[in-house]
Predict the structure.
Amino acid sequence: MIKAKEAANLRVNFEFNNVNEDYSDLNNYAQDGTPCIYISGESERLGIINQCNMSLCKIFGYTKKEDLLNKEVEMLMPKIYSDNHKEFLKVSGQKQAD
């Protein structure tokens, strides 16, 4: 449970239209089996899966990361959430940019 709290408090170096992605902490969490995923915040790739680990793949029933990389994160969500998620990301990005 401590790892979950650390993950929740993890500060990602992120600006909505200027993303400096750092995957080093993903490798650290991957060692202990914590499922991890990085989603793009760039406007051209908003909501696209940039990186994930095998723990995340297994939870969602995938056998290789390549099945998820460069796909929309909405593919992992129930329809009730995925239907509005893209719009939510766009609105959140606009508010953050203001």
Observations:
- Residues 77 and 85 are 9 Å apart (CA to CA).
- The first helix runs from residue 2 to 9.
- Residues 1-20 have pLDDT under 50 and may be disordered.
- The beta strands are 37-39, 49-52.
